[in-house]
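Sequence of Small auxin up regulated protein (Carya illinoinensis).
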Amino acid sequence: MGIRLMGLAQAKQKLRRSLSARIRMISATGVDVPKGHFAVYVGELSSKKRFVIPISYLNHPLFQDLLNLAEEEFGYDHPMGGLTIPCSEEYFICLTSSLNCS
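Predicted 3D structure, token representation.
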């Protein structure tokens, strides 16, 4: 019984450290993201650019295709820390411009 409680305490401590590190990362990078928007990273490996886009884009089929590509290429755990879209900046700007018009 005592060993199990000690294991639970250690797991709780690890979870708390992990969550506090994630919160620090989010608060450091999420300062300039307005409500109703989210940040994505776009571009080549050496020069990714950060874009802040409306959440409404998540419902659009063209943007969902990009998300599927991101899932195929990176999975759900990748080193960038944020949502990375695997396309060129030019394509992304063109796509988001067309989404703004519709």
